[in-house]
Amino acid sequence: MTQLFILQLVCCTITAMLALHLAMASLQVRWKQQRYEISRWLLCGAMLLFSIHYFLQMTWGFRGQGADVGAVFNIMFYTPVSFIIALSIINMESTKNIVYRYCLRGAAAYTLIAIVFVCGVIQNGSLRIGSLLYVMLALFVASMAYFIYSIRYEIQKRKKKLLEESATDLMPYVRYAQTSLTLLYISAAFMPIVILFNTLLLYVGPLMLLIIVFFVHSFVSLGYYISPDDNIINEQDELVEQIDNADIKDEELKVQAPQELLSQERLKQIETALRKWCEDGMYKDCNVTIYSLAANLGCKKYELTEYFNLSEHTNFRTWLSDIRFNEAIRIIKNNPEYNNDTISIECGFSSHTQIYRIFKQKTGLSPSQWCDHIRQQQL
Questions:
Q1: Which of 21, 58, 262, 317 would give a disulfide with 266, using CB separation of 3.0 to 4.6 Å?
Q2: Class of domain 3-224
Q3: Are 304 and 293 in contact (CB under 8 A)?
Q4: Given this structure, which CATH class describes domain 263-378?
Q5: Is-contact 116 139, C-beta < 8 A?
Q6: DSSP 228
Q7: Do domains 3-224 and 263-378 have the same CATH topology?
Q8: d(CA 379, CA 375)
Q9: Which of 12, 71, 93, 10 is nearest to 47 (CA)?
Q10: How far apart are CA 73 and CA 66, in angstroms?
């Protein structure tokens, strides 16, 4: 049994297990979110396609017939797999219009590759298509570059919006996003090597397989943190995209996102409503967003944004973190026996790691260290 066959067998087995893991993940999560479920099944399909690819490689021995034959076969499989993986990420990050445009461009790219492949086979009568292989490779590299650009752009845009509009712990999302980009960067760098050179494949293949495993597990982990109320992509995003990109003349739409500053009277009304919201302990809801807060107060999202900018000189996330931090300080002073998990629940932090990072940022100490420091001062 050759080393190449063993590598293909391992890749086939692991990708099949990843597909099964993704398929069974819905039995483990607490809640189901539609966009996440769609992306999960897309990833499951990509892993299954990967597994079929390696099974065919073992059965028919395309790589054994020569590097050029193996390269043609790999391009025909790796392109749709890369496209589906990228689509699963973009579906989580972008609006429906962007997903639709990505699908059209990805389909067009694969169609060009397929046309070159068919022309090569007809011209040469076999999978040895000669110089057309390099045309396929160039189209494949260009497609990968587009996939990476699209994902990086959408992830950065989504992360910025989450920082502005959400106050939950973003570490699960950050891990998933970083793993997504790492997967694509390394894949793009080494994919031509994997496609063209059998010898280097034995060294690069296990690394790429390991990255795919990390990506799948980070994606599944992200699902544990998503609740039915999470608007990964929400209606407001769809509206903003229409206004920004579609040259809309409808004044009714534009009224929903006005630019004028709020009056002093309106600022006072929002301040009063926010004070009552805090007094009622509504900040303890770890899933609150600027949209849910605006709905609770009976105002618009843009009004809250303007209020935080003009009156508090901060943003929603920082304001709410300060409210929760001050409550955590009070609880620790009154109940020093509480642990981080209890304090997190009482204050509305979405995880004990979030409260740990906020304490480190504001005091330079962990909650337990800060509590010990307070005790020493009292003594």
A1: 262
A2: mainly alpha
A3: yes
A4: mainly alpha
A5: yes
A6: T
A7: no
A8: 6
A9: 12
A10: 11
Tokens in use for 220? Answer: 């599944």
Question: What does the domain layout of the chain look like in residue ranges?
Answer: 3-224, 263-378
**∠223-315-355 over CA atoms, to 5°?**
50
Closest among 230, 324, 329 to 283, alpha carbons compared: 324
Tell me the pLDDT of the chain (379 aa) as tens digits.
Answer: 488 788 889 999 999 999 999 999 888 776 778 889 999 999 999 999 999 999 998 888 887 777 788 889 889 998 999 899 999 999 988 888 899 999 999 999 999 999 999 999 999 988 899 899 999 999 998 998 898 888 889 888 888 887 777 877 777 787 788 878 887 777 777 777 777 776 777 778 888 888 888 889 888 888 887 766 554 455 455 544 554 454 444 444 444 444 456 788 888 999 999 999 999 999 988 888 888 899 899 898 888 989 998 888 888 988 999 999 999 888 888 887 788 888 888 888 887 788 888 888 888 888 888 877 776 776 6
Helix, strand, or coil (residue 166): strand
Q: Which residues contact 236 (CB under 8 A, 6 or more apart)?
A: 291, 301
Tokens of 97: 């219009």
Nearest to 158, CA basis, from 234, 211, 215: 234
Q: Which amino acid is at 37?
A: E
- Of 263, 215, 205, 244, the closest CA to residue 85 belongs to 215
Hey, is 286 helix, strand or coil? coil
| Cα distance between residue 306 and residue 283, in whole Å | 20
Q: Which H/E stretch holds residue 151?
A: helix 132-165
